[in-house]
Amino acid sequence: MEKTVHKWYEESFGKDYLLIYRHRDRRQAEEEVFKMMEWLKLPTHSDILDLCCGMGRHALTLAHTGYRVTGVDLSSELLQEARASDPHGLVNWVEGDMRALPEDTMFKERFDAVINLFTSFGYFEEDHEQLTVLREIHKALRPGGRFIIDYMNAEYTTNHLIPFSKRIVDGTIISETRRIFSGFVMKEIEVRVQGSNNLTRRYSERVKLYSPEKLADMLTSAGLTLDTIYGNYEGQSYDRKQSPRMIMVGHREERGTNRNA
User: Fold this and answer.
1) Cα–Cα dist 33/157, whole Å
2) Which of 72, 76, 179, 195 is deepest in the core (most CB within 10 A)?
3) Would 257 be classed as within a structural domain?
4) 34 with 53, same domain?
């Protein structure tokens, strides 16, 4: 019987996440932020929401660049790491669920841009839950505000999936098993200290696969407009078969704009 993964995202983004994804460093974040700012074309001191900010690499880079940044994440442990990296309090760190942002003036139509990076989307079983996330992005954006959603390219991911990998980080063995099942990319992760056979920590990750057409329809349903899709952070055009990423850039319409004009 197929194992059901229940709310994996509440369990997988703790302290071991910092070890498993240590290869995502600050320099890489700086390069990605530079490219994102080219795409968003925002003036300095604009308000940016990093939705699912994790340990805060991009949020902090944006803040150091001169933007006013709020970072939201469900993981208290990752936010603790983010705050520790932000001794001057440059970023407003908020613990919260991306499906239900706070209902106050701090979030409603507050932001000039919302970013959601590294496939921090598609976590949920049902399409309507992902649509709820997009509607929360719409609510958080000022009219005319911009968004970036950095998602995996479903066809490329399916054709280039690595079934198994193992590496050692600081004396810890990290084994990752990947497969496609029922429209999801499933990843099982085992973390074990070298020389120890007794203590193995296990995590699951599951992300739903979406075509660009389906995502474009969902964005439209949420009141958002997709302007362009990039295939990577070098700014190459999206190619369904060749692009590793599907980086969607778009906007919320200004008030009074006729979308059908």
Assistant:
1) 24
2) 72
3) no
4) yes
Query: Which pLDDT tens digit goes with each residue over 105-133?
Result: 789 999 999 999 999 999 999 999 999 99
- Residue 184: give the domain boundaries: 157-207
Give the closest residue to 183 by CA, choosing from 162, 216, 152. Answer: 152
Is 113 strand, coil or helix? Answer: strand
> Considering only CA atoms, which of 162, 117, 163 is closest in space to residue 137?
117
Q: Are residues 161 and 142 in the same domain?
A: no
Which whole-number Å values give the CA distances from 36 to 61, 111, 181, 221, 242, in the listed order? 12, 16, 32, 24, 21
CATH of residue 132 = 3.40.50.150
Can you tell me whether residue 121 is helix, strand or coil?
coil
How many domains is the chain built from? 2
> Across residues 202-227, what is the average pLDDT?
96
Q: CA–CA separation, 118 vs 23, rounded Å?
A: 13
Whether residue 113 sits in one domain with residue 18: yes
Express each pLDDT in 4-30 by its tens digit. 444 656 665 566 777 777 656 678 889
Q: Quickly list H helices, 85-234.
A: 127-140, 154-160, 212-221
Residues 40 and 116 in one domain: yes
User: Which CATH number is 183's domain given?
Assistant: 2.20.25
Q: Which residue has the tokens 């979406």?
A: 210
Tokens of 104: 């106050």
